[in-house]
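Here we describe the complex-level prediction in full. Unlike the single-chain runs in Section 2.1, the two entities below were treated as one system.
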Amino acid sequence: MEAQSRTAHAEDPTLAPSNVTAGPWGAGEGQDACKDHFIARNGKLFAGSHLIIDLWGAARLDDLTHVRETLIEAVRVAGATLLHIHLHHFTPNGGISGVAVLAESHISIHTWPEREYAALDVFMCGDAEPMKAVPVLQRAFTPSRIDCDELLRGEVNE
Amino acid sequence: MEAQSRTAHAEDPTLAPSNVTAGPWGAGEGQDACKDHFIARNGKLFAGSHLIIDLWGAARLDDLTHVRETLIEAVRVAGATLLHIHLHHFTPNGGISGVAVLAESHISIHTWPEREYAALDVFMCGDAEPMKAVPVLQRAFTPSRIDCDELLRGEVNE
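The structure predicted for the assembly as a whole is:
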C-alpha cells in the first residue's frame, strides 16, 4: 500500500532538478497511526535505533535525483513508511542536505562532494530495520570507507 | 534578512493544526550558498557538531504549534539559517516527528508524549552554534532530565 501511494504522488524527478519536496505519502489510508512504538531487544527497552553513518571516498553526492531515489530505496528496504521528503541542493559546491520523515522517525543526509564525504543518520523505531539501509547506501555511493555507529535512543529500565 | 524572509513566508500556525510544511526560506536572496564549511576547533578539522539530545519528564510534546515555534527559535538562537520545516502529528498518541532543514544541516525531533520523552538531534556545520539550542529546548519542554552528547562528524586529519 505504501508503494502504491508513493507512485500515486510521485513527481518526475527530472522536473525537479533543484530542491525537491514531496509528500505526504500514506495519508488518508489509515496509516497515520504512530509506528514508533518502543523496541524490546536483548532485555533492553528503548525508543529506537539511531545509526550514525559516515561515508568517505563516496561518489554521486551531488546528484539530487540519485540521492532522492537512494533515500526512498533505503526506506523501502528497511521496511519503514515514508511520510515526507525534502532535499536542498546547494550552489556552487553541489552539496545536498535533506531528510526523509518516516512514520518510524527519519533519515537525514548531508553531502560534501568536494570532499567525497557524506554524513547520514538513520533513526528508526518500531518494527523497521535501519541496518538494512546501510548496504543500500554502500551500493548507491560506493564509498571507500563507511563508518556506522548505533545509538539506542530513549533506553528505559522497566 | 533571514528573519525578514521567514516573516514574509510564515503561515499562521493556527491555520495548520495538523501536519505542517513550510519553506523554502532564504531562496532567491543570495543565501543559497552552502554554509556548512568544515570547522576548525582545538586543532581538529571536522564537518560539523552533531548533538544527540534526550528529554525526559518533558511537557508539551504533543503541541504542534509549540514544537514548531521552538524549533524555529532554536535555529534562530543558534545562528543558523532555516530552509524548510516539516512536522508530522501522529494520532492517536499525539506524538510529533519532524525536521528543520538548515543551510548548516538539520534539527530533528521525535516525541512520545505518553512517556514524556523526546529524542532530538541538532546537527550544525559552519559558524552556527548548536549548543545554544539546548537552553531553548529546556525552556520550551521543561524536562526533568536532559542528556546531550556531542559527536564530531566528518573529522579529518589534514
